[in-house]
Design brief:
FAD/NAD(P)-binding domain, Rossmann fold, 5-stranded parallel sheet, 4 domains, about 25% helix, globular
């Protein structure tokens, strides 16, 4: 792995006094120019120290806009570039690549956000917005004059992918990776591949038996010579970093270690388990969860009336949103003190599908459906609602601020479900429920060991969190780790398999070369200042990025040199694991740590420019 250099002059060989900054202000098609006076802004920046040229253009990210920058690099000897436009998450990479095409180091670039941070939040005061934009662009120029020509990090990569989880998403990812020519290790802690498919009936939209689909996918995996399947093993730990991960798995009493350049997490989900007494839960003869009911339904012989555990079920009620869309103060909190306030996305469709099957096979059973509202996500899923309604299911909508109540059988009264119905202007309704089916939601699978060993980001909903929902939808902040399926969020089967394909494509792209290129914005250590206090270790969120090591005092540049043979604990930085968040820099009192591309002198200069504006 190559580190970052920080030479005093950039690659063009000029000294600090020869810095020539190009400033480019984008109209963003009116998003910025309708609020900020971009012409005045460019004119004022043209007079600012070290600015060689300052221009404005309707769309700087367009090919003509980039060509303006390239021409100024060639003709006006611009050797630093500042673009004032939209969020850097959208086009920072675009402009860095433009600098590269112009022969300039791509890290001699500074992006200033005057859309989200200025025009979009100050629409009512154009003059103040222009002043704020001016202050931010001046700060950007001050930083640009102090930028160093950094070099990208290069990490050698193990050309193999570890897929953790052998359900439909894991198998789909493994097959896609094998198809891309990559060897794969597929880990499944159960005795067979298939995951939740092994518990389901028929799947939408094909109507294929879930177990048959699982079997077909498993056969496809077995037919791929480049996929090694590990069944029944327990992953005890995952260490390493992008290009060099190591998966430790306990298999049959022995410990195996597998190296991989990338990880695909397809660890799946668990069903919500209602607490004792929650909507009658615990009364096995009269209350069942939807997964329990679905599993048994396929094997029940058709007849006039549904029979459940030896009893005739003439009145069957489905209750939606059990364990999903919970409200603070209304639903009991989970073990961590929070409620599951998210929608599980698949329960409505699954409940309606089950209701339709019951009405088809047991015409003498009346079906009631009690919901907050129906959410049949996905193309074609609405047909289940229409089908159940046409076959005679009766739908009720309970109020969100008043949970339904399960009333057990008493004397001559059957078991009932009691609620206030929104559709009849909050009338109190009781429907008989010989069997109550709880449409339970989806909860994240317990993978505490993986989360802790890799320091994986977890969202407020406790699912694994992607780096960005639009720009990096199947990646986590940790490089080289990708998400497939319901470990990330509740999904339908087709969505989970699509996400698996995206994760596989990202992993294949990452490992397409023998080395992986990483941004150089990582922590730099001044070893002679480090006292080994360890405060930075407490702040670091990325496992293994920082660690204490012993180094000879003579090698620390001590003055006078330390005695031979003595050593001191100092911090070592693993550049491939460091994400450049800067948390460690903030707590380092001796200033032994600094962030490449974000040095303290740059911060001070930027703050000074803003204060002076």
């Amino acid at each position: 792995m190559n580190g970052t250099g920080r030479p005093g002059d950039n690659q063009l060989g000029e000294s600090t006094g020869d810095v020539r900054v190009g400033v480019y202000v984008c109209h963003c098609g009116g998003n910025i120019s309708d609020v900020v006076d971009v012409k005045a802004l460019a004119g004022l920046m043209a007079e600012y120290p070290h600015v060689a040229v300052a221009k404005e253009y309707p769309f700087m990210c367009s090919d003509p806009g980039q060509e303006i920058i390239l021409e100024d690099i060639r003709a006006n000897r611009v050797n630093r570039v500042v673009v004032a436009s939209c969020s850097p998450t959208l086009h920072e990479t675009t402009f860095r690549r433009a600098l590269q095409r112009g022969g300039l180091n791509p890290y001699l670039y500074e992006h200033v956000n005057i859309r989200e941070q200025v025009s979009w939040v100050h629409k009512d005061d154009h003059a103040a917005a222009t002043r704020k934009a001016l202050a931010l662009v001046r700060a950007g120029v001050e930083k640009a004059t102090r930028l160093d020509p950094l070099e990208a990090l290069r990490v050698k990569a193990e050309r193999r992918v570890a897929v953790i989880g052998g359900g439909p998403a894991g198998m789909s990812a493994a097959l896609a990776l094998a198809g891309a020519g990559l060897p794969v290790d597929l880990f499944e802690k159960g005795p067979a591949l298939g995951g939740r498919l092994l518990e389901m009936g028929r799947v939408f939209p094909t109507g294929e038996e879930a177990t048959a689909l699982a079997r077909r996918l498993a056969e496809d995996v077995a037919a791929q010579g480049s996929i090694r399947v590990h069944l029944g093993g327990e992953i005890t730990r995952v260490d390493g970093y992008v290009g060099n991960f190591e998966v430790r798995v306990e298999e049959g009493g022995s410990q195996a270690r597998v190296k991989a350049g990338a990880l695909v997490l397809a660890t799946g989900f668990d069903h919500y388990l209602p607490g004792a007494g929650e909507f009658g839960s615990g009364d096995a003869a009269r209350v069942a969860t939807l997964p329990e009911f679905q599993k048994a339904l396929g094997s029940l012989p058709a007849g006039k009336v549904l029979r459940w555990r030896g009893r005739e079920i003439r009145h069957l009620a489905f209750l939606h949103c059990v364990g999903s869309r919970q409200a603070e103060g209304l639903n009991p909190p989970q073990a961590d003190g929070k409620v599951n306030d998210y929608c599980s996305r698949v329960c409505c469709t699954a409940a309606l599908h089950a209701a339709s099957q019951v009405l088809d096979r047991f015409p003498g059973t009346q079906v009631y459906d009690c919901h907050k509202d129906i959410r049949t996500y996905g193309r074609g899923h609405e047909a289940y609602y229409e089908d159940a309604a046409k076959k005679g299911a009766l739908f009720f909508r309970y109020a969100e601020d008043a949970l339904p109540e399960y009333l057990p059988a008493s004397g001559l009264l059957p078991a009932r479900l009691k609620f206030r119905d929104v559709l009849t202007w909050m009338e109190e309704v009781e429907v008989p429920a010989d069997l109550l089916v709880l449409a339970t939601g989806v909860v994240p699978r317990a993978i505490k060991g993986l989360v802790e060993s890799l320091k994986l980001p977890v969202g407020a909903d406790r699912f694994l969190q992607e780096a960005h929902p639009k720009l990096r939808p199947v990646e986590v902040a940790n490089n080289g780790i990708f998400l497939a399926g319901t470990c990330q969020a509740p999904m339908t089967l087709d969505e989970a398999c699509a996400a698996a394909g995206a994760a596989a494509a990202k992993a294949a792209q990452l490992l397409s070369q023998a080395e992986i290129s990483l941004d150089p914005f990582v922590v730099e250590l001044k070893a002679e200042r480090c006292t080994g206090c360890g405060k930075c270790l407490e702040e670091c969120s990325y496992s293994g990025a920082l660690k204490l090591v012993d180094r000879p005092l003579a090698g620390l540049g001590a003055t006078p040199p330390g005695p031979e043979g003595l050593s001191a604990a100092v911090i070592a930085v693993n550049e491939a694991l460091c994400k450049g968040c800067g948390a460690c820099v903030a707590v380092c009192e001796p200033r032994a740590l600094e962030l490449a591309g974000w040095h303290l002198d740059q911060f001070e200069a930027m703050a000074g420019a803003i204060a002076a504006s």
